Amino acid sequence: MAKRDLKGHFLAEVVRLWPVARGSLSYVRKPCIRPNCPACARGDKHPSWILSFYDKGKQRCLYVPQKLVATLRQAIANGRKVEQLLSECGAGLVYENRARRKARSSKREG
Fold first, then answer.
1. Could you say which of 49, 76, 85, 88 would form a disulfide bridge with 64 (CB–CB 3.0 to 4.6 Å)?
2. Residue 90 sits in which domain range?
3. pTM exceeds 0.90 for this model
4. 34 burial type by CB count under 10 A (0-12 exposed, 13-18 middle, 19+ buried)
5. Cα–chain-centroid distance for residue 84?
């Protein structure tokens, strides 16, 4: 695949895969901040979703509203596919370079 084709393929795939995200989504149960919550008093904790990710080398966590969970799950799966594409592009650049060098050397010999 030519360099332009490699770049075009990568960009088209990223657009097709949008939305993308990196991180992990966790379902947790936590006590709330209300002082006299009956559920927390019984030992029941409140369910919630948390997104864990790295920002400038530090692990961060964000609360995720229930209505965003499905979209975020898909975005994380898409993000993993983008990471795979990045790996393929790196190898593609090496193979492309080898093919160009081989073509140049065969022109010199011919």
1. 49
2. 3-109
3. no
4. exposed
5. 10
The total domain count for the chain is 1
Predicted confidence (pLDDT) per residue in 14-48, tens digit: 899 999 999 999 999 888 888 888 888 888 888 89
DSSP assignment letter at 56:
T
Q: What is the pLDDT of residues 43-95, one digit of tens each?
A: 888 889 999 999 999 999 999 999 999 999 999 999 999 999 888 887 777 77
Percent helix, strand and coil across the chain, each rounded to 5? 55, 20, 20
Helical axes 3-17 vs 69-109, angle rounded to 10°: 170
